[in-house]
Amino acid sequence: MTGIPDQLHRAFFKTFSLLAPGVQGALLRRYFDWWHRRPDPWSLATDSSEHHKYLATLDQVSAGAYPRMLEVGCSEGVFTELLAQAHPAAEITGIDISGRALERARRRTERYRSRVRFARADILEHEEHARFDLVFCAETLYYLGRHDRLRRASARLRSLTAPSGVLVLVHPWPEAELLHGFTDSDQTFSKISERVEANVVRPFAVSVYRNNQAALETGPSSMSSGWTS
Predict the structure, then answer these.
(1) Which of 24, 29, 86, 162 is deepest in the core (most CB within 10 A)?
(2) For the whole model, what pTM was predicted?
(3) Residue 139 belongs to a domain with what CATH number?
């Protein structure tokens, strides 16, 4: 989807945020299971622009070891598979609201089953207590609608990112300015990089943040060390 149809698609889901979070989540689960009645409904595995976005996202992440990774909104596991290939030592968790999508994600990543797992979860309600060294959240936040839901999602992403860990947000541009704004204003995070591709079929932004919680807790002297790859 591009242009006006894409905008109408996202505007439609904003109306769901007028409902209570639990009701909103239940409707989204039913919708996305219906949407995934056929494989790869967004052509994520075959669309060249999606592949370009995936590679741009991976390219923005500084080289290094990330033992535990989380992908929020993993759908059918196309990007999860790329992550597993790019980081052969990492344990990866993918969450999505659609059980049907997750069934296909498990089949797609079968060869990595010893270190890739999936869970059906809503980012607003997810009760995962683990913290991750690298967290991805792509093409997900605009489904949440109202600012209070975006603020809540930002806080949840913060709680899932380990101290000194990295959070990567990927959303359509210029809408990403709003969707990433709550993380931009969160003093726990510092933005390390941002890549905006405005002259492509589906403009997007990749924003990368570091969780500075450990430095904040130990005082200003720790903050001076900055980002290291």
Answers:
(1) 24
(2) 0.86
(3) 3.40.50.150
